């Protein structure tokens, strides 16, 4: 019995002298950061990068470089109704936007034009109004950082600083990769009319100056990363996972502040993404015009566009219609199979 009494005293003494028990909730900020959401990537694909990005902290910030993969590998067929040429939309960000605005069994009309203010740093008035959630997330991040600093929470401040550093690295890498590239030969003053055939029977018609259409449909939005880009992206990813351990040492008040900030910002950015109806890229804007028009048959849509364009070679090349060979085969004495 004396042995058990000694063991009991030893355990009791250890409990008194040990530090405060581990709080499982301290893992929330790190787990929220690692959540595989595409909220930030979606905004990046539709709005590009912004100098405020490093101070807009939200879950899945390490998924921002995957904005180029949101199109899920789809490169839809596209026909120029004015010339009859058929090609593909090669810009992944444009394809993702078309997937969002397209509706099954409907034709969606889009218009492309030059932005009134093509600045890469100063948004237009319409962009600012459409990004109220983004600016609110910026304010929430700054408030949370100030709050954690006022609490004297060194580890919490270090956690937020790491998030800012990760966002800054991704911002610089994406800015470097999003420089204007190849758009084909310029055709100033020429108007274009494109018909795009998306998956799930979504049809889109895009009209505007040919040079603006080329800027948004040809080439790619993000160039292939250089060795230096790959290195810094890898550093940013490592910092995300290392930050999980840092959060475990923050105070309870700091943990709750950071976790609340991440949750609120995720909701604000998701709300903004749902309201975005424009694609801004390279000083051009692509936006929907009117409501999608429903068709009962794809053939009805093809016949209408053929009538408007005055040619059907593009429709044949896209497989929307086939040439009527019955009369030719009858004249040649061949058998007609129905």
Name the features.
13% strand, disordered C terminus, 13 helices, 338 residues, 8 strands, eight-stranded mixed sheet, single chain, alpha+beta, 49% helix
Can you count the helices? 13
Element-level helix/strand string: HHHEEHEHHHEEHHHEEEHHH
What structural category do the secondary elements indicate?
A: alpha+beta
Strand content: 5-15%
Low-confidence stretches: 7-19, 325-338
Gross morphology: elongated
Summarize model confidence as the mean pLDDT.
Answer: 83
Oligomeric status: single chain
**Biggest sheet character:** 8 strands, mixed
User: Helix coverage percent of residues?
Assistant: 40-55%
Tally the beta strands.
8
> Using only CA atoms, what is the Rg?
28 Å
Distance between the termini: 98 Å
Give an account of the 3D structure.
The protein has 338 residues and is of the alpha+beta class. Helices cover 49% and strands 13% of the residues. It is built from 13 helices and 8 strands. It has helices spanning 2-17, 28-34, 39-47, 92-101, 125-129, 132-150, 154-177, 210-217, 227-247, 252-275, 298-309, 313-317, 326-331; strands at 77-80, 86-88, 106-114, 191-198, 202-209, 278-281, 284-288, 293-294. Strands 1, 2, 3, 4, 5, 6, 7 and 8 form an 8-stranded mixed β-sheet that branches. A hairpin with a 5-residue loop joins strand 1 and strand 2. Helix 2 (28-34) runs antiparallel to helix 9. The radius of gyration is 28 Å and the shape is elongated. It starts with a helix and ends in a 7-residue tail after the last helix. The model is unreliable at 7-19 and 325-338 (pLDDT under 50).
